[in-house]
Amino acid sequence: MAETVTSPFKTEGSGPIAKSSRILINQIQVLLRTSQIHDIGNVAFDRPVTNLIGALDGLFKTDTEFALRCRGEYLYIDDTRVRYDIEDMVSYELVSSIMKEKKIGSFNFQKPVSQDDLKKFAFALNSFVPPGPNQPEEEFNNILKERGIYSIWAGPLEEAEQIKLDDLADRRKMAKKTYFQAVSVTRGVMNSIKSEQPTHLKKVKRVIQGIVDIILGEEASLLGLTAIKDFDEYTYNHCVNVSILAMTIGQKLGLDKNMLTKLGIAALFHDIGKVDVPIEILNKPASFTEDEWTVVRKHPEMGVKAISKIRGLNELAASSMAVAFEHHIFYDLTGYPVTREKKMPNFFSRIVSISDQYDSMTSARVYARIPYSPDKALSLMMERSGVQLDPLLFKIFANIIGVYPIGTLVMLDTRELGLVFESNPNPEKLDRPKVILITDSSGKRVAGKTVDLSETGQAGGYRRSIIKALDPKKYRINLAEYFL
Ligand SMILES: [Fe+2]
Ligand SMILES: [Fe+2]
Question: At a CB cut-off of 8 Å and minimum separation 6, what does 419 contact?
């Protein structure tokens, strides 16, 4: 059975209106693409324009006017959501993303629409740059009128849509701000500990709570920031990254806000013992000597000491000390510091250990002087899962980080759509899995040919690359059809 999506709006099934709606969306996409490559007089316009007029006639049957609307992820004809099959998916995605990009909520069509109107409309839309938040659709309508088009006009993005867009931008900004605040607070804490000054714990708690709020809302923006490793003072960024990664794992585990804050603070302080490691050693561009290693390996114990000096940690002190002490003790109880009594590191420590390994491996400045690519780091860690790393927690982590897990629906740069079928055994090419093609570049369904995305063409470049992953639930795709 294909999956269906519930919606408060009607969904038109297979009647003639539904067919015209799908042709309309499809041909608008073709028209827009044609006007990007051809002059207005080109014969390439004949087909899409004729098809569009046909679709418009079908939709004008019940009224002399209708609107093609974009709401959220869906397209509507008036208030009826247009149902679409896999064949229509590319057009559907492109038309809705163009409307969002141009900040236009609807296109209204009034009978009669001429072939000329349609062509001019396509050129106007392609070159339209929304002027700002104030009624971009009015600006577009002025352009249409200037060009003598009165049968088509644009309507505003619905308010909820507008708020959602603004909100997303605000949330991203907020994430960025919080990230850099966290880095600066960390710098402050480490410096105050180094100079034996009192630590401003309130600031630390506030900034970690800010991160928790973002993670509970939209974790992706912060995770993206942890991937930027090119900072001058890597030590502070490392602490913040490890804290974000740990809290993201915690969030997937369903920890509540309090626990997440506790975990975040413990993770932020995991390397606090490094304030006692001479900066020449920490920033050394070459490998450590045996003596230097001995110094570096003391940072867990020094961390416990440093945390014990921070006043006001209260109930956070115990977990922070445990993490500082245990984050280099592995799941199989090897690692350091070596203790007489062997016991499994605490739950938080095991989470931080994974986050710490990943961030250290993917950055140039901590231990490993040559950074691994994220997927390479992940695959190396996979080998350590169950040995150095808690296998269950690692599985959760790999899922957070994982590039394109099997079954992911992906759009390719060739405009083909495919399903990830088999991951690439080469850990450096995790983003180049094998994919079953399910539509060709025109959106037509094809009979499941498998292609390897690591295949290169004659010029040496990759033949196909993934542009983005799509949510298969949104489309009527039956995975079993391709995988069984
Ligand atoms: Fe460490
Ligand atoms: Fe670390």
Answer: 407, 408, 409, 410, 435, 436, 438, 472, 477, 479, 482, 483
Strand partners, 81: 11, 76
Identity of the residue numbered 204:
V
Interval between CA 405 and ligand 1 midpoint (Å): 30
Distance 296 CA to ligand 1 centre (A): 9
What's this model's pTM, rounded to 2 decimal places? 0.56
94-148 pLDDT tens trace:
898 899 889 899 999 998 999 999 999 999 999 998 887 778 888 999 999 999 9
* 173 alpha carbon – ligand 2 mean position (Å): 27
Give every CB contact of residue 448 below 8 A, 6+ residues apart in sequence.
436, 437, 438, 482
CA 92 – ligand 1 centroid, Å: 49
Residue-wise pLDDT tens digits, 441-465: 888 888 778 888 988 887 878 999 9
Ligand 1 centroid to residue 216 C-alpha, Å: 26
Per DSSP (E only), the strands in 101-207 are 106-110, 152-155
Residue 221 Cα to ligand 1 midpoint, Å, equals: 25
- Cα Rg for the chain, rounded, in angstroms? 28
CA of 271 to the centre of ligand 1 (A): 5
Strands 80-82 and 10-12: parallel
Rounded to the nearest angstrom, the distance between the alpha carbon of 445 and the centre of ligand 1 is 52
Class of domain 170-401: mainly alpha
Residues whose Cβ atom is located within 5 A of ion ligand 1? 271
- In terms of Cα–Cα distance, which of 109, 223, 135, 245 is closest to 172? 223
Q: Which helix (H) or strand (E) holds 470?
A: strand 466-470
